[in-house]
Amino acid sequence: EHLPEQIRIAWDGTREVKVPVGHKKCDRIVIAGMGGSALGPDIIQRALFSSLKVSLEVVRGYELPKYTNSKTLVILSSFSGNTEEIVSASKDAKAKKAKCMVITTGGKLKAFAKRVNCPLYTFAPGNLAKEPRLGVGFSFAGVLGLLERAGYIKLGERQVRGMTKAMSDVIDTCSLEINEDQNPAKIVAQELQDRSILLVASQHLLGNAHTLSNQINESAKQYSRHVELPEMNHHLMEGLSFPKGNFKNFSVLMIKSKVYHSRIQKRYDITADVFEKQGGKVIDYEVRGKTVLEECAELLQFGSFLSYYLGILNKVDLVAIPHVSYFKEKMKKK
Q1: CB 172, CB 75: distance < 8 Å
Q2: Closest Cα to residue 211, out of 321, 304, 311, 319?
Q3: Low-confidence ranges of the chain (pLDDT < 70)
Q4: Percent of the chain scored above 90 by pLDDT?
Q5: Which residues fall within 8 angstroms of residue 15, CB to CB, at 6 or more apart?
Q6: Is the pTM value of this prediction over 0.85?
Q7: Residues 6+ positions from 334 with CB-CB distance below 8 Å
Q8: Coil, helix or strand for 101?
Q9: Please, how many CA atoms are within 13 Å of residue 244, restricted to the half-sphere of its CB?
Q10: For residues 26 and 204, what is the distance between their CA atoms, to the nearest angstrom?
């Protein structure tokens, strides 16, 4: 329920960021982030696919692409500011003489931004987000704000209000006090309980599907993967036959939109028919925003409720990440 407030704070905060002229003349954009700090950039990459005049790539790792140079804008995104892969990427960006921008709460990345004197947006999440995956609103609106300040997108107050309004509408129907039979997020969560989950999305909502998959995995501790339609129509459907009977344990959440390409829209019902023939359980969810970004905001809000309710149904600690924590501790000793 704090997501619209995160959007508002991040957008307003980036209004104060001063961007040098050189940062506004790059021919490529690379956003480096890991885990929850890459989810906002993922949504943006897909949402802006048809409107950006320069290429945008999201990188998850220690190194930046070889093509990174002085004409590349590199946005370094890390909730803590100490994510080892992104700290490494910051050094790589400096070595390649890229134009850097940073979004973080502090840590080594904040120190890096101060040291190299690059544009910096810092946020203090407080009780609005105690985990990176719960602070996607900050990274989503924060990176949007930095791109707008640098002149790569046109986005104004009206569009931001449209996004927060779309999220507030979801809160009105999906919040905790709304009964199960009238709450879309609770209804879908019950349909997905005790089953492996396949999320199907297209075009501008594919980054949202990736975000939702991460949230279900990490918060609800339930297996989830996202796939892209129409790409999956060319191979995945044939891979559902074996192991024999395996797909009967899957629920498929089909994320629909009237904004999709008309031919893509026609594929959804036919694809659902194939899934059902293979034994899968199909559930539809259609977003209804007036713009691409409104639909992204709506689905981000709905997905956050959905992963939360799945965690409650699974009776798990939604905050604890024991396997990830174990892995990180072992890596520190390597």
Answers
A1: no
A2: 304
A3: none
A4: 93
A5: 145, 149
A6: yes
A7: none
A8: strand
A9: 0
A10: 24
